[in-house]
Design a protein that fits this description.
This protein is an alpha/beta fold. The chain is 30% helix and 25% strand. The protein is built from six helices and ten strands, in the order ααββαβαβαββαββββ. Strands 3, 4, 5, 6, 7, 8, 9 and 10 form an eight-stranded mixed β-sheet that branches. A two-stranded antiparallel sheet has the order 1-2. Helix 5 (118-130) links the parallel strand 4 (110-115) and strand 5. Helix 2 crosses helix 4. The chain is globular, with a radius of gyration of 16 Å. Bound molecules: S-adenosyl-L-homocysteine (SAH). S-adenosyl-L-homocysteine binds at residues 64-67, 90-91, 93-94, 96-97, 114-117, 120, 143-145, 160-161, 217, 219-221, 224.
Length: 227
């Protein structure tokens, strides 16, 4: 039974990869390798293991979600990650995205993943440890809407929650030529966003909107949504 489930998940995982390659959703082979290396089943709740590779977000704890695989890999590709980079992630959630980033910046890179909900910070930390990536990923329980000044500046900043706009702190904490990837709300319904990819140039941001619309849970905290 369990073996069947594992085999089935593997099949679904490979089907997703074929779909991405065929549709040119992902071009970077390193992103595919990272997706293969990190098992999404280790980051979902125990009862969700069999459906871990369905292409949809899944509820984790405290009404939050682990993003859908296609969104995760599109964001990873947009980040143009390289070994040795220092990356700030806002919204650790399950720790899945942080683990994938770690795969792409290891062995010398570092990932600082900020999570505002204490029980989710614990969940992410435990999952990261299980994946053996605790030397690379540090999960911090804090309000990441202000960034994380202690480890700044960063080569990359990625936000995995819908922001009302781009907090200034992110620009300040990004290195020159660094990339900020952030879903910004586009309507009355904050969860509906466009994905902004911005590069820091001469101290300011040069922005581009990626194709498509995305849904994320709301960014909370001082520079996020109040409720
Ligand atoms: N990247 C996660 C999914 C993120 S869901 C994964 O791979 O599983 C968005 C997360 O952002 C939620 O866990 C939510 O609690 C967190 N969050 C929302 N506002 C935040 C803030 N201001 N600072 C840090 N984390 C925040």
């Amino acid at each position: 039974m369990v073996e069947d489930e594992t085999a089935n998940s593997e099949k679904e995982k490979e089907a997703l990869i074929s779909f991405w390659l065929k549709n040119k959703f992902v071009k970077d082979q390193r992103v595919i390798e990272a997706f293969r290396a990190i098992d999404r089943r280790d980051f979902v709740l125990p009862y969700q293991k069999a459906i871990a590779y369905e292409d949809r977000p899944l509820p984790i704890l405290a009404e939050q979600t682990i993003s859908q695989p296609t969104t995760v890999v599109q964001m990873l590709e947009a980040l143009e990650l390289k070994p040795g980079m220092a990356v700030l992630e806002i919204g650790a959630g399950s720790g899945y995205n942080a683990a994938l980033i770690a795969e792409l910046v290891k062995p010398d890179g570092k990932v600082y993943s900020i999570e505002i909900i204490p029980e989710l910070a614990d969940f992410a930390r435990a999952n990261i440890k299980k994946a053996g990536l605790e030397e690379i990923v540090q999960v911090i329980n804090a309000d990441g809407s202000k960034g994380w000044p202690p480890a700044a500046p960063y080569d990359r900043i990625v936000v995995t929650a819908a922001a009302p706009d781009i907090p200034k702190a992110y620009v300040e904490q990004l290195k020159e030529d660094g990339i900020l990837l952030i879903p910004v709300s586009i309507s009355e319904e904050p969860e509906l966003t466009e994905l902004i990819k911005a590069r820091k140039q001469k101290g300011g941001l040069v922005k581009k909107t990626l194709e498509g619309y995305y849904t994320f849970v709301k960014l909370r905290g001082e520079k996020g949504y109040a409720d």
